[in-house]
Design a protein that fits this description.
mainly alpha, 2 domains, 66% helix, mitochondrion inner membrane
Length: 267
C-alpha cells in the first residue's frame, strides 16, 4: 500500500498533491512528535519538490523490498510446506514446489496480467480520476479527495471515525489486525472446506469490504457516513467476535459429536 500511495503522488496532479498532503498530515495526530515528523517527511513546511524527490526514491526502493519478501515467502514455503484443501498435515502426500506449485501459481499470475492488460490497453483512464489531469495547485483545494480504488476501503475506515487520532489508529488497525488471525482463529480445523459457518462468515466479510470500497469513493455526506461507520464496526467485529465465536462453536459441536460417538460405541 505504501508503494502504491507513493506512486500515486508522482504524477503531481491535483489529486496527487492533496492526497499526499492529507495522508502525510495523518502523522500529525501522533502526540508530541507528530508535527515535527510531518515536516521531516515533507522536507520543509509543505508538500513540495523535496517531498516529490523523496517519494520517488522510496517508490523505486520499496518494490525491491517486496521482491525480497516474496523470495523469503517462497523459501519458507519450500521449507515448511503449504496448506491443502483438506486442511490437514499429510507429509505422505507432499509434492515438490517445482514444477507443480510453480506452474499452478503461473496460471493465476497470467490471469492477473491479462486483466491488468485489459485496463492498460483498452481503458487506461477507467480507474483514474479526471481531477488528477489538473496540474498541482496548493492554493486550490479539489472538490473531493478520492484515493485510488484499492485504497478506498481503508480510506472509508479512516473517515468513519470523527476523531483524527482515532481514525488513524482504526485505519492502521484494519491492516495490523490480520497479524492477530493465528490467535483469533480458535478452530481446530485449518482451511474452510469443511466449515460451513466460516464459509458464510467469509462471504459476509467480502460484502462488507465491498461496501467500504463503495463508501470510500463517495462524498462525505449521509447516508455514506453512517453506512461507513456500520461497515467499519462490522469489519473489526468480524475479526474480534465472529472468527473466535465460529471457532468455539465448531469445536464445541465436534466435542459433542465425539462424546456421542464414544457413548454409542460403549453401549
Amino acid at each position: 500500500m505504501a508503494t502504491a500511495f507513493l506512486g500515486y503522488v508522482l504524477p503531481w496532479g491535483q489529486m496527487s498533491l492533496w492526497g499526499a498532503t492529507v495522508i502525510t498530515n495523518l502523522l500529525s495526530a501522533i502526540p508530541w512528535i507528530g508535527k515535527d515528523l510531518v515536516e521531516f517527511i515533507w522536507g520543509g513546511f509543505s508538500v513540495d519538490n523535496a517531498t516529490l524527490n523523496r517519494f520517488f526514491s522510496l517508490h523505486y526502493l520499496l518494490p525491491f523490498i517486496l521482491a525480497a519478501l516474496s523470495l523469503m515467502h517462497l523459501i519458507a514455503k519450500e521449507e515448511n510446506g503449504s496448506n491443502n484443501p483438506l486442511g490437514i498435515t499429510a507429509n505422505t502426500d507432499m509434492v515438490y514446489l517445482h514444477p507443480y506449485y510453480v506452474f499452478k501459481d503461473l496460471v493465476t499470475i497470467f490471469l492477473f496480467f491479462l486483466v491488468l492488460a485489459l485496463f492498460l490497453f483498452y481503458a487506461p483512464n477507467k480507474l483514474g480520476h479526471p481531477d488528477n489531469y489538473i496540474p498541482a495547485n496548493p492554493m486550490q483545494t479539489p472538490a473531493s479527495i478520492v484515493p485510488e480504488w484499492y485504497l478506498l476501503p481503508f480510506y472509508a475506515i479512516l473517515r468513519s471515525i470523527p476523531d483524527k487520532l482515532g481514525g488513524v489508529i482504526a485505519m492502521f488497525g484494519s491492516l495490523l489486525i490480520l497479524l492477530a488471525m493465528p490467535v483469533l482463529d480458535t478452530s481446530r480445523v485449518r482451511g474452510s472446506a469443511f466449515r460451513p459457518l466460516m464459509k458464510l462468515a467469509f462471504w459476509l466479510l467480502v460484502v462488507d469490504f465491498l461496501i467500504l470500497l463503495w463508501c470510500g469513493g463517495q462524498h462525505v455526506e449521509e447516508p455514506f457516513i453512517t453506512l461507513g461507520q456500520f461497515a467499519t464496526a462490522f469489519y473489526f467485529g468480524w475479526f474480534l467476535i465472529i472468527v473466535p465465536a465460529v471457532g468455539i462453536i465448531e469445536n464445541t459441536l465436534m466435542d459433542l459429536a465425539a462424546d456421542e460417538n464414544k457413548t454409542a460405541s460403549t453401549k
